[in-house]
Write a structure and sequence with these properties.
Structural class: alpha/beta
Shape: globular
Bound molecules: pyridoxal-5'-phosphate
Largest sheet: 7 strands, mixed
Oligomer: single chain
Number of strands: 12
Number of helices: 13
Length: 352
Amino acid sequence: MVQQRAVTQELPAYVQGRSIPNAIKLSANENPYPPLASVVQTVSEQLGGMNYYPDMSSAALMARIADRHSVRVEEVAVGAGSVEVAQQLINASAGEGDEVMFAWRSFEAYPILVKIAGATPVMVPLTADERHDLPAMAAAVTDRTRLILLCTPNNPTGHSLQVDELEEFLAAVPKNILVVIDEAYTHFDTDPNSVNGLDFFRKHENVAVLHTFSKAYGLAGLRVGYAIAPEPVAENLRRVAVPFGVTSLAQTAAIASLDAEDELNERVTLITAERDRVITELRNLGWPIAKSQGNFIWIRAAERTAEINDALLAEGIVARAFMGDGVRITIGTPEMSDLLVRTLAEIEPIAS
Ligand SMILES: *Cc1c(COP(=O)(O)O)cnc(C)c1O
């Protein structure tokens, strides 16, 4: 038997949102709308060049991102989805014996990526009302803590961090620990008191922000995301990145998407309005659904998780069940939402 790292046996499997033929896929927080015609057009024009490697530095995209956020290009790092950029952040920050802290439940990729790096995940439970327990997280910092991941709005619970609580947290965390704000769903966040990661990046020397083109921009299948980080960190991210990880098509599509931001924002507005409608209708049916700032809702179903998931599946709706914990359901088109509400109307709501 060849020798392999023992950690590979201990990794929790990342469960992909299921796809079932003819079913409505609300399991992966994808954008329900097809790519914009302008984006498809630009990418199509590039197909004939796939025999060439991409620009390894993603220079044009990096410049475009820097310009978009008024940061220096030296503060940008890109990757094959923000999952890869999160992996770069973890690999550049923590190894054997180091700790990486994040709330739990949160994005299921975090514990996997931390363990692959050989570091120890420190998972701090959410509060009873599903928020990051920032005081508990600050108290859990040790001299081994190298990185803290904050997800806002949090996947899968939908709560977002508030400006005041994050200011307090950052005042309590030593400046030599990098704090990453994962804003995969920030476009869908309509709460004016929510954190804007870039504001914190500008103010704090130990803050980085993680963004993706997969959700609001609808490019999940092409894999491209980025970090905005203090220059020395961003430089290290580029060092640990998989060479040529971001394909030419992904670079092109990301730039075209930034060119079409207004059009994309119209879709984001449709999705957030739909989210709020679904929450209101479910609440009217007696379902205690918390406000969500993401493109998904969360049902803290506990021991009824499997039952609710099965009832949705029976109507052709594929959600994302975390057994024993809850069900996350992506907001799709209005027709999909109607079916979702009709289906849940047939089930006894969970107790509030
Ligand atoms: C979907 C998601 C991402 C983005 O993943 P990509 O690799 O960019 O597709 C990052 N963070 C969180 C919390 C997510 O839910």
